[in-house]
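User: Ribonuclease P protein component. Structure?
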Amino acid sequence: MTPSVLTRRADFLAANRGLRVARPGFVLLARPNDGAGMRYGITVTKKIGNAVVRNRMKRRFRELLRAALPEHGLPDHDHVLIGREGGVERDFAQLADELDIALQRVADGKGERPRRPRRGDRTSGKAAGKGGA
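Assistant: Predicted structure:
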């Protein structure tokens, strides 16, 4: 079974309320999705670098997830990878090992608990201060 891709912002926000496992190159979020199947999403913010760097990181993460999720992913869960600063320079095999460890920790329920929303964050709509008038 091939995992499907998360596209809705609400799904990413919901995943943020699940378990979190931090690794040097990424943070893995995992949350049950009420029978929607195995799904994944990738987030790389502008803090990481320019578009070339962010797209390279997303391509690497996409390939990591395609290889790892069918075997190690949790059924009926959303999996979200958030890129971290050192992720693009890390060795691909090392990232794959870290992802396997992170998926195992989530399966064992050993991730950090969900974080509280930051003050001023909204759960839907555009981010504050963004958008035209």
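The chain has a mean pLDDT of 83. The domain at 4-107 is CATH 3.30.230.10 (Ribosomal Protein S5; domain 2).
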